[in-house]
Amino acid sequence: MPRANPSTPEGALVQGLAGGRRLLLLAGGPGTGKTTTVARLLELLNPAQGSLEVILAAPTGRAAARMSESLNFSDKTAGRTIHSLLGLYPGRPPRHDADRPLAADLCIVDEASMVDLPLMNALLAALPESAALLLVGDPDQLPSVEAGAVLGDLLYGAAEAAGERAAGERAAGRAAAEEGGAPPADASPRDEAIPRGGVVPKVEASPRGEAALSVEATPRRKAPLAGAVVKLTKVYRSDTVILEAASAVRKGEFETLKDILAEAEGAVRLHSPGSPDAMARIIAHEAREVFESAAEPFTEADDISKLFDGFSSRAVLSPLRQGPWGVPAMNERISWLLGGTASPFPGMPVMITRNDPTRNLWNGDRGVLVLFDGRLRAAFPEAEGVRSFPLAALPGWEPAWVQTIHKSQGSEFDSVTILLPEGADRLLSREILYTAFTRARHSVNLYAELETVEAALERRVVRHSRIREWAAGK
Question: What is the dihedral of CA 226, 227, 228, 230, to 10 degrees?
Answer without folding.
Answer: 120
